[in-house]
Amino acid sequence: MQGFRIQPGSDARLFEMAGLEPGDVVTAINDVQLDQMDKAFLALEELAGSGDITLRVNRGGREQTVRIQF
Predict the structure, then answer these.
(1) CB–CB of 30/52 below 8 Å?
(2) Beta-carbon neighbour count of residue 23 at 10 Å?
(3) Distance CA 53, CA 46 (A)
(4) pLDDT digits (tens, 9 = 90+) for 24-53
(5) C-alpha 2: how far from its chain's center?
(6) Residue ranges of the PDZ domain (predicted)?
């Protein structure tokens, strides 16, 4: 497992505003590597109380960092 491939939902504008692109593969959330399912669940639990998120994404073979503030 290398991460999760993401696609925009019903409001593609929000997806784009967050700095994400269709087909990005999220490999880490707030420094939690998404290489195992249990780590993915841990990362999602941490998001519940977070005001901002740092995603590491693989886009076209290149690692990038995307920061999202709520």
Answers:
(1) no
(2) 12
(3) 10
(4) 999 999 989 999 988 888 888 877 777 889
(5) 12
(6) 16-59
